[in-house]
Amino acid sequence: MEAIKYSEANLMVFIQPSKTGAVSEAIKQQLSSFLFKFNETFGGVLLAYDFVVKSNLAKILSLYPFVGISLKANLLLFAPKPETYLEGKVVKLAQDAIHVVVLGFSAAIITEEDIRDEFRFKIKHGRELFRSTSHKRHVIKVNTVIRFLVKSFDEETLHISGSLEQPTTGDIRWLSKNSEELSSAGRKREDIERVKEEHSIGTIDGGVLSSDSHVLRKPKKQRLHEV
After folding, report:
1. Does residue 46 contact residue 11 with C-beta atoms inside 8 Å?
2. Phi, psi at 21, each rounded to 5°
3. What gap in Å lies between CA 9 and CA 29, rounded to an integer?
4. Who has the most CB within 10 Å: 16, 65, 84, 99?
5. Dihedral angle over CA of 64, 67, 72, 75, nearest 10
6. Whole-structure pTM over 0.85, yes or no?
7. Where does this polypeptide localize (predicted)?
């Protein structure tokens, strides 16, 4: 997962003098208070850590009743960025949105406008699902683990806005079984787009004007959801 990263940091942890008899436990308490919260200094949400005290010498602060201890920490961070991929489990489906949980703590939502046209919302045997019209076995339902693209990440609420517009997004299991087919289809799409760019002389009212035929081709209308 692109949003997971490891980081090494040199930190100064401040503990009360009364806790100098159990320094390791005091440091763990301090670092644990940052778990599953976005920390600007770390540049992400702290998921896990370990540390080594750099010196047996501690610095006593003259102005505050604390002892400063220097340590080296290894951090595991969650730092999703726009245009990177994430994986999560679907927890709820509706006609206008897919709700996902990432790593068990961060909520993500993919709204109707960010679900590509090939997916149609259906209710089958009383269960909501999105089924691909291009690949009948490509189905998204509750408990499906999906890959999606990050649009934005709210650092305060840890809420993610995602997208399924890209052909490399969707059900992880289906994608892994059909990766070669998707790569081939992606190359064909790139070839088509390159040809369009080479022969196009402009755009008019959303259509592409071809320099060869001079025929205005209108884009296809957006498909409606089927229930």
Report:
1. no
2. -75, -15
3. 17
4. 99
5. -60
6. no
7. Nucleus
| Residue 150 near residue 83 (C-beta atoms within 8 A) | yes
Entry field: residues in the chain: 227
Nearest to 23 by CA among 74, 68, 72, 64: 68
**How far is the C-alpha of 67 from the C-alpha of 22, rounded, in Å?**
13
pLDDT (tens digit per residue) in 145-202: 999 999 999 999 999 999 999 999 999 999 999 876 555 555 455 555 555 555 443 4
**What does DSSP assign to residue 217?**
E
In 3D, which of 41, 21, 143 has the Cα closest to residue 31?
Answer: 41
Residue 44 is encoded by which pair of tokens?
A: 């992400």
Q: Are strands 44-53 and 67-78 parallel, antiparallel or unpaired?
A: antiparallel
Angle (CA) 186 191 192, round 5° = 95
DSSP 8-class letter at 62: S
Cβ proximity of 64 and 97 under 8 Å: no
Do residues 118 and 132 lie in contact, with contact meaning Cβ atoms separated by under 8 Å?
yes
Q: What tokens were used for 74? A: 């290894």
Residue-wise pLDDT tens digits, 25-42: 988 998 999 999 999 989
